[in-house]
Structures are given as structure tokens and as C-alpha cells.
């Protein structure tokens, strides 16, 4: 948002209260008052189709979550030092979404994806006795001191520390046709570079859809070789499922499953409680046993009974309403329609993604090779004028990122497509 723009009283109030940490969308931020399904309503009564928010996966203000949370908070909510069966019911339901062969038998619930990645990284360090991490160039994994070090996109004027190496995400534009092999070679080079610095690799930490890097979901199956390389060097593979998890990619419940790989540790968050703050680490018990024998782990709020109630409601809703299939069908439809638009618009160079996680590359009209971040911002603003909320990703912010609710309807998808064509002048 733009501090030079004249601001409403409510924006000025927020800035007075939160100062430089205020993270607000749009030059002229929106004051929201309510939301339902895929729509949000602002203070002027304007309704916006939410194509950005990867939190209310089953729909804003969902009645099932409202009922589950209110019932539990009116019955019992406490720190996590007591046995409350709904917590174990949730842990078992969540565990059942992971293939048994992975042997990910323990789950630690936390309150944010950052906390989850922080713990996952500490488990990896303990198990491997290494301290090195390999991530992708524009990755974001969270906000703790430890996790910020592996989040290149969050480090504005700070260099990556010596124990972190960032490599390009596995995409054709960086590696050519042999993406999987090229990516594995980069991982190997990163391990060698760490070794030269006297650092052993602890883990390869990857967002399974490379969302901050610009959304690279396909081709499926391109991570195997890189993971083999990291395993050979004694490191672990941590799958960060904060963005793709909970059925969003349509073809799988977890993003890593699309690549047919076996993570050693998985981290979750964002849509997990449909807005109720909750996240988690899914791990092999041996890692947790060794870690807890040493420093232990306690989280006052992580996995409290109300969080468990919210989480259960989300899992049930995804299953009962077959939202994974909805994500697949509507995602394919959106992609197909957007690709047709890309063929006739000189401003769109590529459309890619899986299910309801789609990236659209915006380019200068003179060349598909010239990313256009300025025009991307214009499109975001113009889409707002068409009552659609959307955001951007990628190293230079020139990839539009689509993540609508999983309960999206065909009519809502069409509403988006029409507005998208309109802002491109089609
Ligand atoms: N991992 C990824 C891939 C994320 O996108 C985010 C948040 N954008 C996080 C971790 C951190 O999650 P949180 O904001 O809940 O701490």
C-alpha cells in the first residue's frame, strides 16, 4: 500500500497502532466488515469475490466451523496439558490423510506455520547433526528468527546466512527440459557449497507448489532425484504444505503426493482451521523422541480443544462435500479458460497450476520474455474495481496468484473469467 496516498481515518488509525509492521493490501486499503462463502463485504457494502485468501478453504464464516468452535469454547478450552478426547480425535483424523507407508506417526500442533517450520527445522538439525538448509530463491517459510533465515523473500536488505543456500525452483525456465535432473544437480551443488563452508546439510525445505517463487506445480514427479541427493548426504526432506495442503491442488490432499515423494517431515497451516489459528508438524517419532529427550517442546495454545474442533469441522467438510474434486474440476476449468485468454492477450505469457492454485505470468505486451510487475499491480487494482481480490507472487511480483475458496462455484469461476478478460481489454 502507498503511504503517499490520502488515507481514511481507519487506515491512519492502524498505522498509528501497528506502525511499520502494518501489512495492508492496496494503495487504498479496504475496510472489511463481513464475509460468507467465497465473498467478502466492505464497510461501504461492496462485495468482493475472494480469489486471494488461502485461509477460509471451506468458505468464509462457515456454519460448521462456527458451530464446532462455539460449542467447544462454551464447554472447555484449556492449555494442552490435559487429556481432551476431541484433540486425539482430530490427530487421528488428520493422520489418516497421510499414506501409512510414510510412517509419519506423530503430530505436534502449533498456532502458526512459522512455528511449525521452526520446529521442523530444529527436528532436522537434531536428527542429522547438521545445520545447513537448502530452499528456493523466493521462498517464504515464516517469521521466527530461525525461519526468516530460510525465507529469502522476507530478507529485503539482509544476505542469506552461510548455512542457507537458495536455488531456483524446479521450473523449465530455470532448468530447461530436464527440470528434475537440473534441480537435483543444483541441490548437489548446494550441498557441496555448504560442505566447503564446513556445514553439513540438515534439510531440503520445499513448499510443494513453490507459491512465492511464482507457482510451479507441474510436471508432477520432478522432486525425486533432488530428494535422493539430499538423503545420500544425510539430510532430510521437509515438505512445507502450508500453501498446497488440505486438498487445494485437486489431484491430491497434500501437494507432495503429486510428486510421488516421501517427506521425512511435513508442515501444515493456513487453511487448517478455516481461520482459527492452527498449524502443525507431522513427523516420524524417532525425530521427535530424540529432540524431546534433549530440549522438549510445549505449546500453550497449539492444538487446544477449540483448535481441534475447528480442524475436525474443516476435514469433515472437505470430505463430505468432496471439495478436493471440486478443486480439481473448477481448477481445470479456470486454467482452460485462462489459457484461452492467454492465447489472445499479449499481456499473459503463461498460465499454470494445479486445482485451485493457479499462477498467471504477466508480461510486457512487446514480449512474452519481459515480466511486467507494474502492469501486474494495475491488473490487481483493476480487478478490485471489478470486485475481485487477487494477489501476486514470484521473484519480481509479476505472477498473479489465484487461490479461491475450495467451495467455489462454476458461476463464481465465470465471474472471475469475465472480469479478467475485461481488465485485459478483451
Ligand atoms: N510456509 C509457507 C509456504 C507460507 O506461505 C507461510 C505463510 N504465508 C508460512 C509458512 C508461515 O505461516 P504463518 O504465517 O502461519 O506463520
Automatic annotation (TrEMBL):
Record-linked Pfam families: Aminotran_3
The protein's name in its UniProt record: Aminotransferase class III-fold pyridoxal phosphate-dependent enzyme
Stretches of the chain forming a coiled coil according to its record: none
Stated family: Belongs to the class-III pyridoxal-phosphate-dependent aminotransferase family.
Highest taxon in the source lineage: Bacteria
An example molecular function term from Gene Ontology annotations: transaminase activity
Transferase keyword on record: yes
Alphabetized UniProt keyword annotations: Aminotransferase, Pyridoxal phosphate, Transferase
Alphabetical list of Gene3D superfamilies matching this protein: Aspartate Aminotransferase, domain 1, Type I PLP-dependent aspartate aminotransferase-like (Major domain)
Keyword Transferase: yes
Cofactor(s) in the UniProt record: pyridoxal 5'-phosphate
Record-linked PANTHER family: ALANINE--GLYOXYLATE AMINOTRANSFERASE 2-LIKE, PTHR45688
Annotated signal peptide: none
Amino acid at each position: 500500500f502507498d503511504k503517499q496516498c490520502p488515507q481514511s481515518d481507519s487506515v491512519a488509525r492502524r498505522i498509528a497502532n501497528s506502525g511499520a509492521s502494518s501489512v495492508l493490501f492496496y494503495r487504498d486499503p479496504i475496510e472489511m466488515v463481513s464475509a460468507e462463502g467465497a465473498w467478502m463485504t466492505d464497510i461501504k457494502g461492496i462485495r468482493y469475490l475472494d480469489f486471494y485468501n488461502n485461509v477460509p478453504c471451506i468458505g468464509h464464516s462457515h456454519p460448521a466451523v462456527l458451530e464446532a468452535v462455539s460449542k467447544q469454547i462454551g464447554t472447555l478450552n484449556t492449555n494442552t496439558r490435559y487429556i481432551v478426547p476431541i484433540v486425539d480425535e482430530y490427530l487421528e483424523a488428520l493422520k489418516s490423510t497421510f499414506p501409512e507407508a510414510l510412517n509419519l506417526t506423530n503430530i505436534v500442533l502449533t498456532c502458526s506455520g512459522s512455528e511449525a517450520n521452526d520446529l521442523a527445522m530444529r527436528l532436522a538439525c537434531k536428527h542429522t547433526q547438521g545445520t545447513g538448509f537448502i530452499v528456493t530463491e523466493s521462498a517464504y517459510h515464516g517469521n521466527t528468527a530461525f525461519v526468516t533465515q530460510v525465507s529469502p523473500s522476507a530478507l529485503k536488505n539482509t544476505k542469506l546466512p552461510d548455512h542457507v543456500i537458495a536455488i531456483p525452483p524446479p521450473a523449465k525456465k530455470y532448468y530447461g527440459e530436464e527440470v528434475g535432473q537440473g534441480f537435483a544437480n543444483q541441490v548437489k551443488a548446494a550441498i557441496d557449497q555448504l560442505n566447503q563452508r564446513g556445514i553439513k546439510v540438515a534439510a531440503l525445505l520445499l513448499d510443494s507448489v513453490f507459491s512465492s517463487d511464482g507457482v510451479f506445480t507441474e510436471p508432477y514427479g520432478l522432486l525425486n532425484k533432488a530428494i535422493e541427493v539430499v538423503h545420500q548426504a544425510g539430510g532430510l526432506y521437509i515438505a512445507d504444505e502450508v500453501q498446497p495442503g488440505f486438498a487445494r491442488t485437486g489431484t491430491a490432499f497434500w501437494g507432495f503426493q503429486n510428486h510421488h515423494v516421501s517427506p521425512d517431515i511435513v508442515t501444515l497451516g493456513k487453511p487448517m482451521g478455516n481461520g482459527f489459528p492452527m498449524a502443525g508438524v507431522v513427523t516420524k517419532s524417532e525425530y521427535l523422541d530424540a529432540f524431546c529427550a534433549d530440549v522438549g517442546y510445549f505449546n500453550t495454545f497449539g492444538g487446544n480443544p477449540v483448535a481441534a474442533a475447528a480442524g475436525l469441522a474443516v476435514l469433515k467438510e472437505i470430505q463430505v462435500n468432496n471439495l478436493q474434486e471440486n478443486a480439481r474440476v473448477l481448477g481445470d476449468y479456470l486454467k482452460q479458460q485462462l489459457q484461452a485468454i492467454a492465447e489472445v492477450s499479449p499481456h499473459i505469457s503463461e498460465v499454470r497450476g494445479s486445482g485451485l492454485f493457479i499462477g498467471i505470468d504477466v508480461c510486457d505486451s512487446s514480449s512474452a520474455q519481459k515480466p511486467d510487475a507494474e502492469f501486474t499491480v494495475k491488473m490487481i487494482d483493476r480487478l478490485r474495481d471489478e470486485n475481485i481480490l487477487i494477489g501476486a507472487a514470484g521473484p519480481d511480483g509479476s505472477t498473479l496468484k489465484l487461490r479461491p475458496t475450495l467451495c467455489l462455484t462454476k458461476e463464481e469461476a465465470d465471474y472471475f473469467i469475465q472480469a479478467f478478460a475485461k481488465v485485459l481489454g478483451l
